[in-house]
Amino acid sequence: MIIDSHAHVMLPQERQIEMMKQAGIERTILFATTIHPETARDIDEFATELKNLYDILNGRKNPVQERIASTTELVQIVKNNPEKYIGFGPIPLGLSYDENLEWIERYILANHFKGIGELAPGTGQAGKLEPLFQASHEAGDLPLWVHTFFPLSFADIKVLLGLAAKYPAIPLIVGHLGGVNWLDTLKAVRELPNVYLDLSATFTTVAPAFAIQEYPERTLFSSDAPYASPLVARSILEQIVPDKQVLQEVLGGNIARLLNL
Amino acid sequence: MIIDSHAHVMLPQERQIEMMKQAGIERTILFATTIHPETARDIDEFATELKNLYDILNGRKNPVQERIASTTELVQIVKNNPEKYIGFGPIPLGLSYDENLEWIERYILANHFKGIGELAPGTGQAGKLEPLFQASHEAGDLPLWVHTFFPLSFADIKVLLGLAAKYPAIPLIVGHLGGVNWLDTLKAVRELPNVYLDLSATFTTVAPAFAIQEYPERTLFSSDAPYASPLVARSILEQIVPDKQVLQEVLGGNIARLLNL
């Protein structure tokens, strides 16, 4: 089965379903969004959407209310197409252990989401995720999906991987493969079997090629739609992975095993 | 004609020619290289190649000798396939006006190269390119190709665009579209008709999509091989550009007009 392991809610929904169909994607692990850049018709409208996102990430807009609203949207969309979508739910950054656990019970488990994300700590903030690792462990070791492209440095990624080493039962999905730090990230995860590598936001095809060569069972195809087209993301992998059996695992088998689909 | 407007010399050459053929690319604007990452068989060998590159960029290896050697390699390879390749020649960063002019005459014009690059100033160093702009103007306004992905910040890119404004007869090719600063870069080049946008190293398909929408006559298809596969780079654009006439210009017409091919 071909599974897009990371895409955000897009509007209108018909367009997202159509894009999945065009790319031959049977299921999508769907993440909430607080903005809808896919509706922007030009760079000014796109910039306005991004500004809204930064206002939330930086706390100028209420991150809790925004995440509850985007969770409500995600729940409804998954409910409308349960055979196509599996949800991962958002959570505000910086909650205490108790607050994380309460949020997980109320907004993640109650909504039958299979994991938590997209988590996007800023530079120097990755350590704030530790109470969430603890709460996720208490709640049954839910997978965590963390954005590791810009603005994270490799120092931030090392903090994150330190948490993965400390909580080895929790699957950690390293979103976007460490960004420009992909090579150091690949070297650093060798002894961390609970770390999975998300292959979206590929700016050099060398990165996913080596990632898959080194970790064929821990690399996950995803589009990060609407930031990339699912068809483009799939065709990149089809062109760089020569082994058809490995390709099949990366395109769906690995995430299916991780989430018990 | 389909023209890959930016790729580096790859070894063995038969492989590069084969990759062009697979991607339906008729001509490639070929750039020198001081390393050959395409020969790396695993991440350790790839890391060794990158270390060699950083040693040259940081001056630990002699950047002048390395660039003369890579120019010699490029000259020979272009000479072996003059119907397939057009060369852009390298130049060390930080030369004076006179040194730049001497280098251009000796290593660029004498070798019939059509432009200069890849230039890769570090953070805070873009201003060091001004003597090169002056010398290029004196030598007939040769196009300059500048890497603008990491480690450049938008402050660096603004310095670079300031030089483009000051020397409006010199075509400046903004390599990799400004990287994570692509949106600010797109906004900043509106009144700079001598600035061209290179579409390689795409980590989000939104970036080239808006770049082409805003500047259909100034956007240039390229692979940046060996850092990305030419076929992948071409298929990304084919999937995101709905207008076939625009696509044809981006895939070759624009660079052909710029270089009078």
Automatic annotation (TrEMBL), chains A, B:
It comes from the Bacteria. Residues 3-261 form the Amidohydrolase-related domain. GO terms for molecular function: carboxy-lyase activity; hydrolase activity. Keywords: Lyase. GO terms for biological process: secondary metabolic process. It holds the Pfam family Amidohydro_2. One of its GO terms (cellular component) is cytoplasm. This is Amidohydrolase-related domain-containing protein. It comes from Propionispora vibrioides.
